[in-house]
Amino acid sequence: MKKRKIIMEQTFLLSFLMLTITGLEGIYSHWNGDPISFSWYLPTSLLLMSFLCSLPTLLLLSEKNMTKKEWGLRIACHCLITYALVIGAGYLFHWYVNLTYFLVTTVAYFIIYVLVWVFTLFLEKYDEKLINEALKNIRDED
To answer: What is the DSSP letter of 63?
Structure first.
């Protein structure tokens, strides 16, 4: 159940942030007078990539007792794997057609990567708080 929850949380966070960045890019282009158009399959491709990018997270979080060096190495590998997925999908789904859009996609990726981990840590702390409160209530009843 925990693995399914992690995949769902990551997928929803990623798709929300990817669509937010895409919307902000559209607003920016509109304000600058640049013609912008999105393919009909853009939302579906973003959702698919959100799901695919959430799967390597299971590998990252599979072991709890790691040293800081191992943790850092796993995060670096996770970041590179998901970056490769995003860049490959960007090429496949035509998210970028020139170097500028490639750079925008790369910067957006790293912004989203950091934000997803911040939100994930926040949700994990919130879950811990709920569990601790439930345990405290059970102890109080006894």
So the answer is: -
CA distances from 133 to 16, 108, 124, 127 (A): 30, 37, 14, 10
User: How many domains is the chain built from?
Assistant: 1
Q: In the structure encoding, which two tokens stand for residue 55, read together?
A: 């799967």
pTM: 0.78
Task: Find the helix or strand (DSSP H, E) in which 134 lies.
Answer: helix 99-141
Torsion of CA 113, 117, 120, 121, to 10 degrees: -170
List of the chain residues with pLDDT < 70: 1, 62-63, 141-142
CA 62 to chain centre: 17
Q: What are phi and psi of 116, to 5 degrees?
A: -65, -40
Enclosing domain of residue 102: 2-141
The closest of 16, 110, 9, 111 to 61, measured between CA atoms, is: 9
